[in-house]
Known about the structure:
The protein is mostly helical. It has 7 helices and no strands. Helix 2 packs across helix 5.
Amino acid sequence: DEPVTLYSQLGGKESIRTVMDDFVQRLKQDERIGDQFKFTNADRLAGLLTEQVCEATGGPCTYSGRDMKSSHAGMVITKAHFNALVEVLVDSLNAAKVPFALQTDILALLAPMHRDIITER
Ligand code: HEM
């Protein structure tokens, strides 16, 4: 039998992709941080986020993007920006009816990345 991973509880790669597509659309529309994603190719970013979350949750994926430090270098990203992004992600997880306990497990995997992503304090 397949092991029970966060990945399988999320419903696999297609379900993660659905959440990430919604997430990137919400990011672009967000009044706090939407401007930072104005020129972002939504399909590419959603694909990379899907790989990243798939891999981090124990799924059969390999993240093919740049590391978090170099991909966010040169941007102005504050703790408030980071928190705003997490709030938007929670909106997408809620819209997909991902259970709260699973949401906190996913956020716990992403939270340590703040060290490489926040550029201004
Ligand atoms: C846990 C939090 C975050 C994760 C997991 C994350 C993940 C990623 C990933 C995977 C990429 C693509 C890297 C590549 O191009 O190879 C990316 C790019 C980017 N991120 Fe983040 N990020 C996070 C937080 C933030 C925050 C807080 C901001 C700003 C408010 C931000 C702004 C951007 C922008 C503007 C890009 C470039 C997109 C483009 O190529 O146009 N990120 N991020």
